[in-house]
Batch of 2 targets.
Target 1
Amino acid sequence: MVSTFSTLLLGIALGVQHAAGISLNVSDEVSIRQAAETAARGLLSYYTNNETTAAGQVGLLTNPPYYWWESGAMWGAMLDYWKYTGDTAYEKEIMAALTAQLGPKNDFIMQDQVFDTGNDDQSFWAVNAMTAAEYGFPSPPAPLPNWEVVAANVFNDMAGRWNTSTCNGGLTWQIYASNVNGLNYKNSISNGGFFQIAARLARFTGNATYADWANRIWDWTAGVGLIDESNGYAVYDGTDDTQNCTSIDHDQWTYNAGMFVYGAAAMANISSLSSSASSASASDWTSRAQGLVNGSAATFFSPFPNATNVMFEAACEKVGTCDTDQFSFKGFLARWLSKSSILAPALASSVDPLLEASARAAAQSCDGLGNSSCGTRWWVGGFDGETGAGQQMSALEVLDSLLVGRAGAPLTAGAGAGASSSSASSSATTAAAPTTLSTVTSSSAASTTAVGSTTTPAVSATSATSSTITSSVRAEPASSSVDMGGLASAIQSAASKPAV
Ligand SMILES: *[C@@H]1O[C@H](CO)[C@@H](O)[C@H](O)[C@H]1NC(C)=O
Ligand SMILES: *[C@@H]1O[C@H](CO)[C@@H](O)[C@H](O)[C@H]1NC(C)=O
Ligand SMILES: *[C@@H]1O[C@H](CO)[C@@H](O)[C@H](O)[C@H]1NC(C)=O
Ligand SMILES: *[C@@H]1O[C@H](CO)[C@@H](O)[C@H](O)[C@H]1NC(C)=O
Ligand SMILES: *[C@@H]1O[C@H](CO)[C@@H](O)[C@H](O)[C@H]1NC(C)=O
Ligand SMILES: *[C@@H]1O[C@H](CO)[C@@H](O)[C@H](O)[C@H]1NC(C)=O
Ligand SMILES: *[C@@H]1O[C@H](CO)[C@@H](O)[C@H](O)[C@H]1NC(C)=O
Ligand SMILES: *[C@@H]1O[C@H](CO)[C@@H](O)[C@H](O)[C@H]1NC(C)=O
Ligand SMILES: *[C@@H]1O[C@H](CO)[C@@H](O)[C@H](O)[C@H]1NC(C)=O
């Protein structure tokens, strides 16, 4: 220990720059792909359920500490890796994982995971179905539906949960009555997940119902003050519906901004929307997306003057209080900023420098445990000693993000997406031809009148009725869901105390 430490001090004193971490040249595609490959392999070193025969465990990281949602997040990172690098090595694992967790209604509701399933958790799996559709990932084997249908099933679940009894709308964090902590918390990640799925379905399908919902969800979120458009587009964590959403938890997390920015960029990419008078225009959506980029740049980047444009988790990283969930969050902001710069190209000039500097710093952090394990704090110039699946995921996502341009524009329904069989390697390695959504015209809007802006689409009932949940519920802490914001924690601790 002592000699290592003094060698390090000597090195610093002599100004020696040790080559540390994963080597990365951000101008060299081969170098980026190699770096991503190392990070992806490191991430999957945490995945030990590859060939498990335990029911329901295929696709899942070890839980605890990695709750159900984070496994979904991992496959999202791996789908992007598959598409951006053209490396098909993990394609079978991705397919097996996504199909194993689809659930009986093909909507990522797993009966044995209901205690770990809030709206946000379901979203982290559901966005993978959108990505699979947009990137031409092979469809699930028959009789399973294609990825677009899976995403639409989740959308229908969520639209059915929209609850106007309080706060004039919104989704609560939790879904099931058995999961008491968070049933009264209307939070950004849950509504943001619904927003992003609606926006991507709107772009993918051209169906105005989805666009109307994306408008409604944004308007609600901004209306209650969770997106603070007049204050640098800050995205706050959540709000208490027992107070009709008048009190707000002002914590800011990278993934909340990330979830919304990509939905806004998808809306900006729809060339013409005319479904309802209150709908925002594509240029409104571009400025919203740009506002979220600006807000993110101000809050989540450049933690110190020596770390310009390096991403950090502002609410916990400097003080060292980030938890297992939160170690992965930076990855999602990287993922969605990069994709946003494709769908709203005007964002690229502000997004690219943030991602390049962050990827460089993240790669340097991947110098741990003798096996390129990635660290938590990208701004220390090396490995900080704190690693795990979340850190691997964040590093992989920010490295992936430098390759987003290779994927071309995400497909739309009319552009060859959802082919039931394709040569995986060719779909992974061939950039999709840029395509734009065919205009959502007034006539197509009119044709959806029956399910239009004022009508909630039919809910596909889930098999998870409260009576069955009550009997199968396992006692677990509320921390089993994604969001760990201050108000959520307060609700959690209040719930464990006698009522005042
Ligand atoms: C990084 O890659 C670019 C493009 O291949 C190359 O021109 C440049 O020399 C590389 N830089 C270093 C330091 O290797
Ligand atoms: C590195 O090694 C550690 C300890 O053996 C292991 O737990 C971890 O999964 C490995 N990580 C990577 C990134 O390969
Ligand atoms: C999963 O199992 C298959 C079959 O043994 C193997 O080829 C593959 O490398 C494994 N994948 C991972 C990520 O361990
Ligand atoms: C809507 O919210 C109210 C107030 O929290 C609650 O009593 C009601 O059960 C909710 N409705 C649904 C369908 O979840
Ligand atoms: C609750 O909040 C909503 C949305 O902010 C508002 O429209 C409604 O009037 C409020 N209801 C009450 C009873 O204060
Ligand atoms: C649009 O989407 C809604 C919600 O899923 C669905 O009910 C409706 O049938 C769709 N309309 C068209 C024209 O496909
Ligand atoms: C949508 O994104 C594609 C890919 O970057 C781009 O070519 C196209 O111009 C965008 N369309 C609109 C309407 O912004
Ligand atoms: C974002 O920041 C840029 C550069 O500071 C500024 O020009 C632009 O007006 C900002 N846009 C929004 C929507 O905040
Ligand atoms: C940057 O500054 C911070 C705060 O002084 C320090 O903790 C960190 O190690 C520095 N990073 C580098 C790369 O020198």
Note: The pocket of 2-acetamido-2-deoxy-beta-D-glucopyranose (ligand 5) is lined by residues 167-168, 223-224, 244-245 (CB under 6 Å).
Target 2
Amino acid sequence: MIAFIDLQAQQKYLGNSINDAIARVLNHGVFIGGEEVERLELMLASRARVANCISCANGTDALELIMIAEEVGPGDAVFVPSFTFVASGEVVPRTGAKLVLVDVQPDTFVIDPNSLKLAVEDARRAGLHPKIVIAVDLFGLPADYNALAAVARKEGMLLVADAAQSFGGEYNGQPVGCLADYTTTSFFPAKPLGCYGDGGAIFTERADKAEIIRSLCVHGKGTSKYDNVRIGKNSRLDTIQAAILIEKLSIFEEEIEKRRKVAEFYNEVLQDDVSVPVNPNNRKSAWAQYTIKIRNRDVIQKECAELNIPTVVYYNKPLHLQVGYNEALCPRRGLGVSELLATKVLSLPMHPYLTHEDQICIANVLKRAVKNNN
Ligand SMILES: *Cc1c(COP(=O)(O)O)cnc(C)c1O
């Protein structure tokens, strides 16, 4: 059976290094705040070419910590693409701010700067103060940061990159992590850079905000955990996860390259049969997912499954159609692209250890299923 994501193959490739790294933590016994955490943060900050990296408990907390540090609250509008994983938008309503949903581009799946402009107009008309736009690098492809920064600057908003799926990607030769005022990522096991549990990180150039976020992660600490200068949370990356991530970082570049090769093969063999993902040439995807668009998706998916080819629909319902999000503000023009994509997208098995034979098998089964159903 072909795996959709194969973490065991990665573990095998790393040999004993992960076990050894975990054993070192068991020996020194500092399970929270051990030296591996700081070492990892420095490695990540250097890779992302930013001054500050703050690790935290998961990618959702990373976004929430920014909302708290920026004092987002009632009367503010926070803009998020509707076609995304729920966590991107989840952090907004609880602050009291209005979640404003924005449409995405049909070819790249990422937030559409023109839709953002219109959504800002709508938000102002509703009496809201545009505060933050959270761009999401869906499936690993960086959003159009130059265009988004121009809108954000003009409207006096901060730009946040939800890079849970795109750490390792690039935009105009710059690494993900330094493309926005704040960047967040997730180390959930299935992400391109995943640990063996939950984990996340925030990247920013702003030293003052970095210090506030560090404090928020540990109960709003001042000089110590028992000196509480603000209302915080408990959101830390534990030492064992940091130790695991340090080992995985050593092969990360190589893994991204292997993912890129898989994507290139898929593009080449599938482009005549299905709508393959579009990557503008100023961007490098981290290839968290390889996602095609097809008609009659559900039968095609079923036929692939019958022949042991796993595929997944990310995501079958945009945020504005989710019951929990019926109070979000939707632009007057609607969110038609998000709705259409939700009916057509299908993600194929994607990981660095997918063998050439498996890639061929996946492509053949898919091509046959498409022919049978179109
Ligand atoms: C996974 C993911 C998150 C949340 O990360 P967690 O670590 O699971 O909290 C946020 N946004 C996007 C786009 C994601 O894919």
Note: The first strand starts at residue 52 and ends at 56.
